């Protein structure tokens, strides 16, 4: 299974294997990864799943759609060039090793 590495605000890293087709938000909340809240369950209405994608992987993702783009304007931590909602990042084999820094704060 492809792996994701979550980098916590203190620099610690959590690595998980994620089934293809599962979002990085669902993977994180299912494994109690601190800092990914996912209040809305993935319907892009909370922005509490904000992550900063490692630039090496950001270009492998489809660009954010209109709704995600709008929600990224309301994140608790300031938006950065590779900001994404982790509920919209769907694991695929090509993303093996994707590294995302967890935004802080989320609320
Ligand atoms: S879980 Fe709510 S926007 Fe991603």
> From the coordinates shown, what is the CATH architecture?
Roll
Range of strand content: 15-25%
Q: Spell the H/E element sequence.
A: EEHEHHEE
State mean pLDDT (0 to 100 scale). Answer: 98
Q: Give the biggest sheet.
A: 5 strands, mixed
Bound molecules: FE2/S2 (inorganic) cluster
The total of helices stands at 3
Please give a structural write-up.
- With 107 residues, the chain is of the alpha+beta class.
- It has one domain: Ubiquitin-like (UB roll) (Roll).
- The chain has helices at residues 24-30, 55-58, 66-71, and strands spanning 3-7, 13-17, 50-53, 83-85, 98-102.
- It has a five-stranded mixed sheet with strand order 2-1-5-3-4.
- The chain is globular, with a radius of gyration of 12 Å.
- It starts with a strand and ends in a 5-residue tail after the last strand.
- It binds FE2/S2 (inorganic) cluster.
Summarize the SSE layout with pairings.
Layout: E1 3-7, E2 13-17, H1 24-30, E3 50-53, H2 55-58, H3 66-71, E4 83-85, E5 98-102
Parallel strand pairs: 1-5
Antiparallel strand pairs: 1-2, 3-4, 3-5
The structure holds FE2/S2 (inorganic) cluster (FES).
């Amino acid at each position: 299974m492809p792996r994701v590495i979550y980098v916590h605000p203190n620099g610690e890293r959590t690595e998980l294997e994620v089934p293809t087709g599962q979002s990085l938000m669902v993977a994180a909340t299912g494994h109690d990864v601190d800092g990914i809240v996912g209040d809305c369950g993935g319907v892009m209405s909370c922005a509490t799943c904000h992550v900063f994608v490692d630039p090496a992987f950001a270009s492998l993702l489809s660009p954010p759609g209109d709704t995600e783009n709008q929600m990224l304007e309301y994140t608790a931590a300031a938006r950065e060039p590779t900001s994404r909602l982790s509920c919209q990042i769907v694991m695929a084999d090509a993303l093996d090793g994707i590294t995302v820094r967890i935004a802080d704060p989320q609320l």
